[in-house]
Amino acid sequence: MDKVRVTIDGITVEVPSHYTVLEAAKEAGIDIPTLCYLKEINQIGACRICLVEIEGVRNLQTSCTYPVFDGMKVYTNTPKVREARKLNLELILSNHDRSCLTCVRNTNCELQSLSKRLGVDEIRFEGENIKCPIDDGSPAVVRDPNKCVLCRRCVAVCSEVQNVFAIGMVNRGFKTMVAPSFGRSLKDSPCISCGQCIMVCPVGAIYEKDHTKRVYEALVDEKKYVVAQTAPAVRVALGEEFGMPIGSIVTGKMAAALRRMGFDAVFDTNFAADLTIMEEGSELLGRIKNGGKLPMITSCSPGWIAFCEKYYPEFIDNLSTCKSPHMMMGALVKSYFAEKKGLNPEDIYVVSIMPCTAKKLEIEREEMIRDGMKDVDAVLTTRELARMIKEMGIDFVNLPDEEFDEPLGMSTGAGAIFGATGGVMEAALRTVAEIVEGRDIGKIDFEEVRGLEGVREATIRIDEMDIKIAIANGTGNAKKLLDKVKAGEVEYHFIEVMGCPGGCIMGGGQPIHNPNEMEKVKQLRAKAIYEIDKNLPIRKSHENLAIQKLYEEFLEHPLSEKSHHLLHTHYSKKELYPLVK
Amino acid sequence: MATVMEKSGEEKLIEKFGKEKVEKFKKALEDLKSMPGSLIAVMNQAQEIFGYLPIEVQLYISKEMNVPLTEVFGIATFYSRFTLKPSGKYKINLCMGTACYVKGAAMVLEKIKEKLGIQVGEATPDGKFSLEPTRCLGACGLAPVMMINGEVFGRLTPDDVDEILSKFE
Predict the structure, then answer these.
(1) Cβ of B77 and A172 within 8 Å?
(2) Which among A513, A411, A544 is positioned nearest to A200, based on CA atoms?
(3) Do B70 and A578 touch (CB under 8 A)?
(4) CB within 8 A of A8, min separation 6: which ones?
(5) Which residues of B110-137 are buried (b: 16+ CB within 10 A; e: fewer)?
(6) A159 vs chain B: nearest CA distance in angstroms?
(7) What does pTM read for this prediction?
(8) B159: which DSSP letter?
(9) How far apart (Å, rounded) are the C-alpha atoms in residues A484 and A216?
(10) In chain B, what residues touch A165 (CB-CB under 8 Å)?
(11) What is the dihedral of CA B100, B106, B110, B113, to 10 degrees?
(12) Consecutive H or E run containing A213
């Protein structure tokens, strides 16, 4: 690789010749402020915050776009640079809706921190504020264009990473905005509700649809029996909202907090993940034995389901008919548990705590309404749960560890790893292998399916048969994989797709950090997930005693008639741009 | 669910604009399609042939050119040359250049808007007139000036508007 020598603020570093000034400065230990910059996917110099002086080059240059050259001399900290950066920021602030106190991103806003960092101490310019309506038509994602600073990071993620193309730049000049085409609501656009735009928004211009209010109401309603369930990925991220180190495992504190909030029962979606493995594993074996549609593709991720229905309807019959784990849990709570406990299912209110925004879309699907009842009534993101815990005055960090409630709180390591990309696949392999071979095969860790790469594949030998599998995380990666399958270039038996890059641990409902530090966050959260798995006494779904009991007492066997009624669903082709009246 | 694309994009276009125009556009599209960076040229052809770029046209272009609608729409709303609404049979281009402006073009504009009951960039419901201000027409000696379908009217006052528009029945 070609290297060049660059001197930044008097510090000389040797860096690859394809580096930008911003990257070189980082090597030199110099932190240039940025706003619109997203490594590799949004390096467009739009916000003009990362300006630097380059010797011999006229005008200040944006360091995120300017390539290095040998002998280059850069100054990042001259009065001219500082003043220009500050002025540009002041201009961004001049027409920004500065209602910080009531903003969902108050105290976790890049624009706020940047104003502080660049020493903005007064609002010198008052620009024209064009008041735009807030788009809250989508059941999952809300857009507030008044807060938008036009950094385009959301557009880059939606287009380049997720390949969804729901939003783009519209109009020009002062009227420029980020929006779906033709003035539509996100609800009538290709949006899949994955929430990855939320994760990269530096301000409060995109956020999840609030469900805290309805949960507060349910919690004080004496007629309601309110049940919480928590997804595998929440327990490795929730602590971050309370200042705990990234990757802290807070399962016990989370259960304790939910109990203190007033939930009547605290169950674990990991239990339902184990159940999913029983149903989905049996479905896979059935398809392989009976010549069913292959490859079978997982259906746990509602963002992925929405993507498939909109962009790859030809793969709808490949989707597992299994509902996602939290929907299975909802259905069971309102049937099995209600029966056991002598409760009227209509009095039960199920709240899912999810790392996900698309789950908010999923609970509204008409396929998920049984006998006029929703399986799940509300979905709180990890962030929303943290907000409620804080508002309710619960000292999260100092809570004791508590257990989930029985019988739907018991889970295995297989359920736990659903939170990371490759987890569903590994959990399925642990069970399928033993069902097929009819014995304990002594293998638990399928290292070959782990990792954080966007697309992975492996061949697993089970009972003299080679099972070909593939894993994709992020819908953009799913697209790459499916295009190959479609072209007949590759063949698989089983594919796991998660809508978000990295899987649920990086879901659109997780705590927000600077997106340029997300790679590290991803690794730490994934490590925590596999640690939970490793430390559990039972690590295979079919060995979960509560699952065995559930089949004995209620469901009879996987894919039974009752299972089909409660735990399975169907999908249909959806238009990218449905007709709007 | 009823959808925009329930029928094929082409069927929708034919329904809206007739077979002749659609065939003409398809021909233009075929000629341009393979050239890299030809999206704007294709949109230009569509604007010429259909008169404006409604969602049916943009979805068709998006599909044929294999670019997301967000990109087509972004371009359509960036350049003032493209319009999303149909223009009228008679296109009124009122000059808002400096000379015309200081000689009272804004008052003429108000009068036209009032008379036709439309805003800038819109067409009358009967499709007869549309109103689009322009930059300098190069006829500053006649300021304020406007063109209707190429015919020039100069030294305008608000009182002239009624009479001029009545010529275009």
Answers:
(1) yes
(2) A513
(3) no
(4) A21, A24, A25, A28, A30, A73, A74, A75, A76
(5) ebbbeebebeeebbbeeeebbbbbbeeb
(6) 9
(7) 0.93
(8) G
(9) 47
(10) 68-71
(11) 60
(12) helix A212-220
**B55: its two tokens:** 């969602």
Number of residues in chain B: 169
- Contact flag B2-A579 (C-beta cutoff 8 Å): yes
What's at A173, amino acid-wise?
G
**Is the Cβ–Cβ distance between A339 and A179 less than 8 Å?**
no
Terminus-to-terminus CA distance in chain A, angstroms? 57
Contact A265, A405 (CB under 8 A): yes
Mark which residues 370-429 of A lie under 8 Å from B by CB: none
Percent of chain A with pLDDT over 90: 94
How many CB atoms within 10 Å of residue A342? Answer: 6
Q: Count CB-CB contacts under 10 A for residue B25.
A: 23
* CB contacts, 8 Å: A166 with chain B: 70
Bridge-partner residues for B113, per DSSP?
A: none
| Interface contact B4-A166, CB threshold 8 A | no
- Give the sheet arrangement for strand A455-462, strand by strand: A296-297, A494-498, A465-473, A455-462
Q: What is the mean pLDDT of each run of 10 residues along chain B (169 residues)?
A: 59 92 95 93 95 94 95 95 88 93 95 94 90 89 93 95 91
Predicted local distance difference test score (pLDDT) of residue A129: 84
Contact assessment for residue B112 and residue B159, using Cβ atoms and an 8 Å cutoff: no
Amino acid (1-letter code) at residue B116:
L
Classify residue A132 by burial, with Cβ atoms within 10 Å: 0-12, 13-18, 19+: middle
Residue A165 in contact with partner chain B when CB distance is under 8 A? yes
Residue A573 is given by DSSP the state -
Low-confidence ranges of chain A (pLDDT < 70): 1, 581
The CA dihedral of A242, A247, A251, A255, to the nearest 10 degrees, is 20
| Tokens 């409902």, located at residue | A509
Dihedral angle sign, alpha carbons of residues A325, A330, A334, A338: positive
Catalytic positions of A, written as ranges: 280, 283, 300, 320, 359, 362, 367, 504
Res B17: pLDDT:
93
The A residues from 120 to 159 touching B (CB cutoff 8 Å) are 155, 159
Q: Which amino acid is at A438?
A: G
Quick check: A575 and B3 CB within 8 A?
Answer: yes
The string of pLDDT tens digits covering residues B95-109 is 999 999 999 999 999
Alpha carbon distance A446, A510 (integer Å): 27
Per the DSSP assignment, residues forming a β-bridge with B150 are none
**A218 vs A214, A228, A263, A360, A377, CA distance in Å?**
6, 11, 9, 17, 10
**Amino acid code (one letter) for A33:** P
Per-residue buried b or exposed e for A235-258, using 16+ beta carbons within 10 Å of the residue's own CB: bbbbbbbbebebbbbbbebbbbbb
HSE (side-chain half, CA atoms, 13 Å) at B39: 20
* Chain B CB contacts of A159 below 8 Å: 68, 70
What is the rounded average pLDDT for all residues in chain A? 96
